[in-house]
Amino acid sequence: MQFLYLSTLILLVVSFLTNKKKTQKAIKIAYKKFTKILPAFLTMLIFISIVLFLVPQELILKVLGGSNKYLGTFFASVLGSLTLMPGFIAFPLAGILRQQGIPYMVLSAFTSTLMLVGILTFPIEKKFLGSKVTIIRNAIFFVISLIVSVVIGILFGEIGI
Hints:
By secondary structure, this protein is mainly alpha-helical. It has helices at 2-18, 20-54, 57-64, 69-82, 87-99, 104-116, 122-129, 131-155. The two termini are 31 Å apart.
C-alpha cells in the first residue's frame, strides 16, 4: 500500500512540475468529489461498524467463514445480491471482514454480487431494460460472481484442485 502512496505522490509532483495550473485544478476537482462522497462513506462505515459490533464475530465467522466455504460463499453471494453498495464502501467492508478471518473466496462472492447483481435495483432496471433482460443480466452476473469466487479460492489456496 505504501508503494501506491509513494507512486501517487511522485506522479503528483511530476504533474505539478509539468503543469502547475492543471494540477491545481485537478486537486480542486478531486477535493470536491471527495467531500461529496465523504458523508455517504462515513455513514456506511459507521453503520457497518455498529452491525459488526452488535453481531458476534463467531456468528459472522460461522455463517461466512465456517468449515464449509461453499456454503459461506453462497450465503455471501445471496447477501451481496440483496444489498447494494458502491465500491468505495464495499471494499473497506471486505477489508474489515478479511481482518475477522473471512476467506478471500467468500469476500469475492460478496463484493462482486454487491456491485453486479441488483435485487434492490430490479424495479429501476426493469423500467429501462425490461423484465426479461433484467432477470437474465442478474442471473448471468450471479453465476459469473460464483465462478470468479471459485477461481479466487483456487488462486489463494483456499480450494485444492
